[in-house]
Amino acid sequence: MLSRAFAVTRCLPLAAFFVATSVSALEFPLPPPGEDIVGEVQVIQAKYEDTFADLGVANDLGYLEMVVANPGVDAWLPGEGTEIILPTRYILPPGPREGVVINLAEYRLYYYPKGGNVVHTYPLGIGREGWSSPVADARITAKTPNPGWTPPKSILAEHAAAGDPLPAYVPPGPDNPLGPYKLGLSVPGYLIHGSNKKFGIGMRVSHGCFRMLNHNVLKLASMVSVGTPVRIINEPYKFGRSGDKIYLEAHAPLDETGDASVVDKHTAVINALLKNDEFAGLRLDWEMLREVVAAEDGLPVEIAQPGQALVATEPAI
User: Fold this and answer.
1) Disulfide: which of 31, 58, 75, 263 matches 52 by Cβ 3.0-4.6 Å?
2) Degrees (nearest 5) of the Cα angle 198, 296, 284?
3) What is the 3-state secondary structure (H, E, C) of 64-76?
4) 301: helix, coil or strand?
5) In which pathway does it act (predicted)?
6) Are 97 and 115 in contact (CB under 8 A)?
């Protein structure tokens, strides 16, 4: 049986292994009807001064997705010549491909321009534990360049209790935590905005709002309009089809009360597969499925192909 790591890399085109310093903004052509995967995983060689935070900014990737895609590599000092995986291949989120789609478990936003045949995707900082970002259907209600910030009473109280009092108002500028642009949402109290800190994008760091890299929020703001739908989901396990094969992309589930057990995670994935008629008549690689769910590294991996139909119980080990 192939290892999960080899299953990921064996499908990469030769170009994916060429050394690169950065990739362009993550904009991909939409796949053909009935298919779900965009992009390609890339492998670069680190320079001496590189960190995952810097590589993330340069490549539109979040900090945690860099960490989980590169187990065993020091995030702050990878080392000259170290091979670094850039996880720039994605299974598109389930549901309509329109407007803005945010997948909390993935720390990532997808934007489908109306009338276009492309998707743009950006890393996000989301609400930390106790300040969770919502799951909701919303829309963009306002666009504000160079915003000022009036901290809510709850945040003022939190900072005061921690001995770090905030001013009642922060004017626009480099010290403003909303960055150069904010997008209002129809869910009261929540925004999509930039940040005055590059570290934290792709992590649970906010009070529920969605933080973006400043160059990303400026690009998004230039494309979206007031009224654009925003669908916020929480899908740690994404299934996708490419050709006649089925792929699984697994992320660590967001949980406020403690981590789910490995058994519970496997059960959730298997039940989702069995309930989806689209996957009937496929031969499932149980060992690979277990490895993908255990790794939670956000890399799409082939788990099924045509053959014997899916069965409800795993084979004996």
Assistant:
1) 75
2) 145
3) HHHHHHCCCCCCC
4) strand
5) Cell wall biogenesis; peptidoglycan biosynthesis
6) no
280-296 per-position pLDDT tens digit: 777 888 899 999 999 99
Is residue 11 flagged as an active site residue?
no
The overall pTM is greater than 0.85: yes
Cα–Cα dist 263/224, whole Å:
41
Asked whether residue 123 falls in the same domain as residue 205, the answer is yes
Q: Domain check: are 212 and 250 in the same one?
A: no
Same domain, 84 and 21: yes
Answer whether residue 316 is part of any domain: no
- Print the domain residue range for 157: 99-233
> Which contiguous run of DSSP H or E holds residue 16?
none
Is 120 part of the annotated catalytic residue set?
Answer: no
User: Mutual orientation of helices 262-275 and 286-295 as an angle, nearest 10°?
Assistant: 130
Q: Are residues 65 and 138 in the same domain?
A: no
Last residue of a domain, one of 64, 91, 118: 91
pLDDT tens column, 33-71 = 989 999 999 999 999 999 999 999 999 999 999 999 999
C-alpha dist (Å) from residue 294 to 70, 179, 290: 15, 36, 6
Weakly modelled stretches of the chain, pLDDT under 70? 1-24, 130, 256-263, 307-317
Distance, in Å, from the CA atom of 254 to the CA atom of 293, rounded to the nearest integer, reads 14
Per the document, the length of the chain is 317
The structure tokens listed for 71 are 């187990």
Please say which residue of 191, 215, 233 terminates a domain: 233
Other beta carbons within 10 angstroms of residue 221's beta carbon come to 21
